[in-house]
Amino acid sequence: MGPGIQIFPAIEKPHVSLAAEKLFGIGPINVTNSMLTMFIVMLALVLFFAYATRRIASGSPEAARQAPRGAQNFAEFVVETLLGLVESTAGKRLGRRILPLIATFFIFILTANYTGLLPGVGTIGFCEHEEAAHTAVVLTSSMVPMAGSPAVAAAEEPVTSPGC
Q: 31 in a domain, yes or no?
């Protein structure tokens, strides 16, 4: 921190990196936090669609006659909406051929982007601290009769963060 009076305590800020943080390596392949998030999203999508289509996969004729409900209803809504969009753009014949590719990309990218909005997603990593002496400026409030007055006190102690 620069010279002069500082009103806020010196807090060690985490290092912000634009590159994905390496978690571990498997041979020559580095597994990063972004890659781990991608695999978790893919696993969640596979499990959701396996759960949603379990009645269809059972092959029983009575399950085929029943109206879809719950997860199956939502999965069919998503696929039929994308089918309508792709068919209106590429035509009926070509649209049905490229639907699996387009739908896979669309659903994965949309889900991965929405999971990025969840707190804590993408922040998987290791916290590294540099031990250094800092000048901490503590903002305190002293109660004066009839009025409150802020007072600034400086302490010459190393600041340590409680953890990541």
A: yes
